[in-house]
Amino acid sequence: MSPTTLSNHPNHPRDPDNLNQGDKIQPATTAQSSSSKEKKAESHLKSTVPGFTSDLVMYQTTLAFKEYQPRFTRATIDSSNYGDRYSTDVDGNLLDNSPLVVLHETTDSVASAINTFRTPHYHDSAQVSYHALIALDGTIINLVPSDRRAFGAGNSVFEGAKGMETVKTNPNLPSSVNNFAYHISLETPPDGRSQPNRSYHSGYTDSQYKSLAWLLALSNIPEHRITTHKNVDRSGQKIDPRSFDFDKFLTILHTYRQPIVPEISTPTN
Length: 269
What we know:
Layout: H1 36-44, E1 59-61, H2 63-67, E2 72-74, E3 82-84, E4 100-105, H3 110-118, E5 132-134, E6 140-142, E7 148-150, E8 158-160, E9 163-165, E10 181-186, H4 190-194, H5 206-217, E11 226-228, H6 229-232, H7 246-256, E12 257-259
Parallel strand pairs: 2-6, 4-10, 4-11, 5-10
Antiparallel strand pairs: 1-12, 3-7, 5-6, 8-9
Helix pairs in contact: 5-7
């Protein structure tokens, strides 16, 4: 089984201020011309999965989206902690999954998470990463290009309109959603770190909700394909993101993007 290469090799040096310059993008259209920051984010979040069947909705961003300006940066992680997205599974079957967003939370600080991802993990079962982190102050940190596979949810499945979706890309590991998922993790608040096994904490900051909505407003991924680590996990052990307010998030997302309603031409006699 050979991977579909969609970007430069992970070890190829890249300018932190010119994220994923070789990537193809599929962002939502913007109400005004994109700023440099928006272009970086669009390059990072372009919702590309090899061979996917389109389950996307066309959106346009709003003036409220323009008015919010999150900090957007990049951190380099070890290449052992992410890989290629595959166009076929271990049995050679062609894959056509649409992109999926999986929301997580860190077990400790953003700095601690990045240090973990910078540590080489040569055993497949120990490899871990997200595509992006969102810090308590709302900073969006790009870790893995969206056309690469982050290792965010081993042994996982998404139950959607098309049934159970999961892909086996490694004969030695359980199938997962990683091949078609975009993983975003919110930094846990201090009380979430001190009590990691409790099912709730004080919650996320307004800046985190706004930055998450801002990032996803750049995509054409519909709401029914935005889920959580808890929902896709098959082990029954994952509970993140704890205390996540989906209603609050969706309210903000709706203010940042709106579906494009196609014009219907009226026939004339």
